[in-house]
Input
Amino acid sequence: MESQVFGEMSWERMIRAVENVRRRLIRVAQFLNAAGIPYAAAGGNAVAAWVSTVDEAAVRNTQDVDIVLRRGDLPAAIAALEAAGFVHRHAAGIDMFLDGPTAKARDAVHVVFAGEKVRPGYVEPAPQPDNPYVKDDVKFLRLEPLVRMKLTSNRRKDQVHIEDLHSVGLVDESWCQELPKELGARLKHILDTLDQ
Output
């Protein structure tokens, strides 16, 4: 195992990776705001924004940017973001904006369409980008639609994001009764298995 060749490990590389994601989100927000296109940042960035309202030491980094858009706004978003140097791609049923012509999908802004199910079997469609929580000129999903979206996806990383929100007191067991039955059951399972 020690014979494997790895790149240089450094604080600078780690900090740069986190900073690149932050800058990408800010650039996207800047150009969508300027074009008057409704959107809301979702995924790990939205979770981090909410967690930071309580305890910045509990914030977890994320590697990409997810935004919720209305499908009808996609052409305008393509025009606005391509003017900013992003490259629109549609691959494997996913719309994304690569951060430049040589960028990888990992360096992209992934689009989730409001009012549509990301996967056919999902319990709920993606939320609308209405009435967003605004922080530093970036629009984020409100807490309840974000939690519902995370519970709908219910992948391990989504469960960890729910755990992060719970760890700072933003989500608790009282939510289980307020959510649709299946999502409430998923939340209860996450909270019941926190120490396992």
